[in-house]
Write a structure and sequence with these properties.
Elements (H helix, E strand, L loop, with lengths): L5 H18 L7 H9 L3 E2 L6 E2 L3 H13 L3 H5 L15 H13 L5 H14 L9 H10 L15 H10 L14 E7 L4 E2 L5 E2 L2 E7 L5 E7 L4 H14 L5 E4 L8 H9 L3 E4 L9 H17 L8 H14 L13 H7 L10 H7 L2 E6 L6 E4 L2 E4 L9 E7 L2 E8 L6 E7 L2 H4 L33 H13 L11 H6 L1
Length: 491
């Protein structure tokens, strides 16, 4: 996730640890053994990549907090420090030393800057006390001094996954409960549909199925395989059924889009990807495509002209009246019966507006001081004047809906207000509003009784100081006053 907060990284790690326990709750008396087994495992630090170990007591606390919360991700976020936002002061000599060190070595890491600064403080006691790593890092960031280097990352390709599949055996599996695991995938149809423009296109079918009951949560045809189509169809599956504990999909660009992955994270849904060249991991949804082509599309052979609306309407009838109601040999009953009768571990789905705000991306933009705007996907948005003191703005939006852009609090990610596109024609009337008070908790300064202030006809304090110092010398002013016209006429 781009622009992800550190607290979200820790929450994601904790959710990854206890997520399997939430998806498959242990039986009576088995929780302690499950937690002790997790305590023996090694986990990766979300920031520096080092090894981590957690006690069973810590994981037990996370488990109960997440299980009792409607939003398990928010419950697993670390608490905010009380001194958040307070800046530790650095003396002038230390600031100059940091500046000189950065100018000479802009490619150093922050840790290397800290180590050399500590050695410099030991050699020059007047620079002490030595600040902490966090203080130096925050000071460098506040000055805009970042490491100047290019990072080239090489990620392993699909060849390694294909080799792993050849070495590892393939086994069938099934989730223990309904809504414990859903499968999601796109399928390219076998025949074209006629679009509104009169052209023919091959549609894509989005399918979502429950692993335990084999119930089709939602099927819908689209003309593309974009993140918008994915979110549009997946939200309907959530509203029809419930929030699942986990979702499995392939590594398609739409499935890895920031809007979709962020939405799953905010809703507390664990997202698992299949290995490259391993469609058998998503076999339950893959098997649906054969049934779609063998029964649904076979029954539509007599329909000469198909458009998207008609195809979707007939598909919904087939799903609800045949597939979900038909006997499934593998489960020994119909998917609908198994979904209704057996235990479900899903959660209640929020409303449409909450889903819309969940499946959005979060980015950072710099405010343009000249007119108080930011640029987003080539469109300029006006920032309310009460937030004019913020240089960097955190905004939440979806790439396919730039009419709904929200400004977020940089610390808590709560919504501050909604942003609207810049209207230059409306601003051309010349009328301007009075600036709104700043949203930083500051109160207006009352300078009426201040001794440091002066009226318009009084000299400022520094000028009066210069007058007193010059008068003490007893010297005349260093200039010649020109004679007035009256004096010239008398002469």
């Amino acid at each position: 996730m781009s622009d992800e907060r550190i607290v979200d990284r820790w929450a994601r790690l904790r959710f990854a640890i206890i997520g399997p326990l939430l998806a498959s709750p242990p039986g009576s008396g088995e929780l302690k053994a499950s937690l002790e087994a997790l305590a023996r495992q090694t986990w990766t630090h979300p920031i520096n990549g080092t090894a981590l170990h957690y006690s069973a007591a810590s994981m037990e606390r996370w488990y109960y907090k997440a299980r009792q919360a409607q939003d398990p991700i928010a419950a697993l976020r670390p608490r905010q420090r009380r001194d958040t936002g307070d800046r530790r002061q650095l003396n002038d000599a230390l600031c100059k030393a940091i500046a000189a060190q950065y100018q000479k070595h802009p490619g150093w890491t922050i840790q290397l800057h800290v180590d050399n600064l500590a050695a410099l403080c030991r050699q020059h006691p007047e620079l002490q006390p030595m600040p902490s790593y966090s203080t130096v890092r925050r000071y460098l960031q506040s000055q805009g001094w970042h490491r100047q280097r290019r990072v080239s990352q090489q990620r392993p390709g699909a060849l390694a996954s294909a080799e792993r599949r050849a070495r590892v055996e393939v086994r069938s599996y099934e989730a223990m409960y309904n809504d414990q695991l859903w499968h999601l995938d796109f399928h390219t149809g076998s025949r074209d549909v006629i679009t509104a423009s009169g052209s023919r296109k091959r549609p894509r079918l989005l399918g979502v199925i429950d692993d335990h009951s084999r119930l089709i949560c939602h099927l819908q045809w689209y003309l593309d395989e974009t993140a918008f189509s994915l979110v549009h169809g997946f939200c309907q599956a959530l509203q029809k059924r419930s929030l699942p504990r986990a979702l499995m999909s392939d590594n398609g660009s739409a499935m890895k889009s920031e809007e979709f992955t962020s939405g799953l994270f905010k809703l507390g849904i664990q997202h698992d990807f299949t290995q490259a060249y391993s469609p058998e991991q998503n076999a339950k949804i893959e098997s649906v495509w054969g049934t779609v082509e063998g029964r649904l599309m076979a029954m539509l052979e007599g329909v000469k002209q198909l458009d998207l609306d008609k195809l979707n309407g007939l598909t919904q009838l087939w799903v609800e009246h045949e597939y979900n109601q038909r006997y499934h040999r593998e489960i020994g009953g119909t998917p609908m019966e198994r979904y209704r009768q057996e235990r479900r571990v899903g959660r209640e789905c929020p409303g449409s507006e909450a889903l819309r705000e969940a499946f959005q991306r979060t980015d950072t933009r710099r405010q343009r001081r000249s007119d108080g705007t930011i640029s987003l996907a080539g469109v300029r948005y006006e920032i309310p004047s009460r937030y004019r003191q913020l240089s960097r703005m955190r905004v939440r939006y979806a790439q396919w809906d730039l009419s709904h852009v929200q400004l977020l609090d940089p610390k808590s990610d709560t919504v501050l207000c909604r942003l609207y596109p810049l209207d230059k024609h409306a601003n051309a009337d010349g009328q301007r509003r009075i600036r709104e008070p700043l949203e930083n908790g500051a109160t207006p300064i009352d300078c009426s009784d201040s001794v440091a202030m002066h009226s318009d006809d009084e000299l400022p304090p520094l000028m009066r100081q210069w007058q007193a110092e010059f008068a003490a010398t007893g010297l005349p002013p260093a200039y010649v006053k020109p004679a007035s016209r009256e004096e010239s006429s008398d002469e």
